[in-house]
Every structure is written in C-alpha cells, then in structure tokens.
Amino acid sequence: MNWDDLRYFLAVAAAGSLSGAGQQLGVNTTTVLRRIASLEDDLGARLFERERTGYRLTAAGEKLVETLEPVDRRLSALPRDFAAAGGSGAEGIVRLAASDVVAAALLAPGLSSFCHAYPGLELEIVTDPRLAAAGAAPRIGNPLKDVDVALRLARPTQGDMLMRKVGDMAYGLYAAPAYLEERGHPRQMADIAGHDLIGFPRAETPLGPVWWFSRAEKSANVTLRSSSVATRTEAARNGLGFAALPCILADSDEGLERIFGPDMLGALEMWLLARNDLAQLAHVRAVMEFVVEAVKRRRGALEGRMQEVMELPPQTSSNH
Length: 320
Hints:
By secondary structure, the chain is of the alpha/beta class. The protein has helices at 4-15, 18-25, 29-43, 59-85, 100-107, 111-117, 177-183, 209-216, 229-237, 247-250, 262-265, 282-297, 299-302; strands spanning 48-51, 54-57, 92-98, 121-127, 149-152, 161-175, 196-199, 221-225, 242-246, 257-260, 267-275. It is globular.
C-alpha cells in the first residue's frame, strides 16, 4: 500500500468532491482519482459512491475514516507539538477556533491585556462557521484537527478531547425601528403572525432560537434564510424583518430594537474544547483560562441582561 493514498482519501472525504480535494492538496482531479482508485484496489473495498452531487462515503469508507481520524489529528499537530516542546513556560503558538461573533464580541476586547501578559505566546484565532452551528460536531473536519483549542456553540458528541461548558449565548428577536413603526411591535408570540422573518437554514438542528423560529415561521413570511449572523443582522437593519440574533451583538446595535428576549428564544451552550494531550501545557492552558475569563467578564451581555447587576459595597456599621 502507498500510505500517501490515505491522505488523498481523507481530503476527498472532507471536501466531498475530487475538485475540492485537489484544491486542498494542490494537485489536479485526475491525480486524486488515480490515488483513490489505487487505495480501493489495495483494500479491496469501494470507499465512495460516485453521485451527481459529489462523493459520498460508503460503509467501508466510514469505517476507514473512524480508523484514520486520530492518526490524522496527531500527524497534523506534530509541528505545533515540537514547537511547544522547545519552549519554556507559556511560550509558543496556540491556534484557537471560534465563531465570528465569539471572536469579535467576546474575545477581541480582552486581547490587548492578554498579549501584554504573555509576550512569548503567539495566538492565532481561526474563525470557523461550523463552530457556530447548533448540533453535533462534524465527523469529517474535526474541530480540533488543525487547532489546539476551540470554543463551540454546542456540546460535542464525540472525539477524544477535554470538554467544559463555560456559559450560554442568549438570543433575542430584533428588528429595525423603521420596520416596527411601519408594521407594529409584537407583544406576544401570536403577534408574529403575518410579519416578515429572517430565518435559519432548514437543515439547522432545532435547538434554542432555531426551534423557536421553526414555530414562528408557521404563521409568518420568511423573506430570507441564512446561517450567517452578520447577514441576518444586516438584513434586519435594512428592514427585511425580524431576526434571531445573539444578544451580546444586537443589544449594542443602535440600528436594531429588541422585541423578545432569551426568556422566549432561548440560548446556545458554549463549550470549551481542547486536545487532551495539550491541555496541560502552559501556553495552551493560558489560552483556555483567557477564554474562561472572557466569558465571565461578559456574562451579563452573553445572557442578554440589559442591565448589569452591580454588587453593592458592604455597609459600614454605625455607632449612633
């Protein structure tokens, strides 16, 4: 067996097509097809079903993916592992994956003080839209394959990793003031009937705000569906209808007005993930602690509380 054929197999499994795998590997589709055919001959098994929409894994292909995923993760992490082993203390490169909203609204405000505290640590924040989706982590393209730490908006259902729930990202229903002035301001769920909605893709897992929207859509008019928070936000600002958005983002947007809060729409769980073999290294641990502290600092905004509850100073005793 040519062991390099396994790399081609994983690329096709992840991309779902020969062309996508070819782009990832820097080769043409003919080369990819030849390597897949060679691997299937060596194993005596058909690994993909060739369909009009792309390449779908067979049962044998699924089994091979399960076997190769841990090996692939370890091999892809070798450069970072050796770099970490050569440093001392909280030094080295840490790749952190998060959604755009989490990276911009939650992590970015604290980056200046973090970078000053750890001058020998180079932090790479990789924005991955898959981490914002509600549902199980994808089988192909494991969120920790190419990164050390990830902050995901759903509990992982598989994978050899350290997992910790760090908070909840609350959602609310928002619209432009001009839209509300023209179409009216709903006071309860029944008032949504007949309004325009900016919804989620139909394939989204029905958790929290997605589940709420699946009910609201039955009596309303869906003008747009998008998995992108930025797209839904901009569409709502421009009067396209009501949108379910993270409170930490939309509450501070002057172009939007909150209609309903998380008590009605719900929230998505926030899970911190890290590779078990790296979680105890000083530089990786420093990033994990940074994420936990960032969540604690913005908990009020994350949970959609319009006013922070300030702790009153202790009362001094009086002698008269």
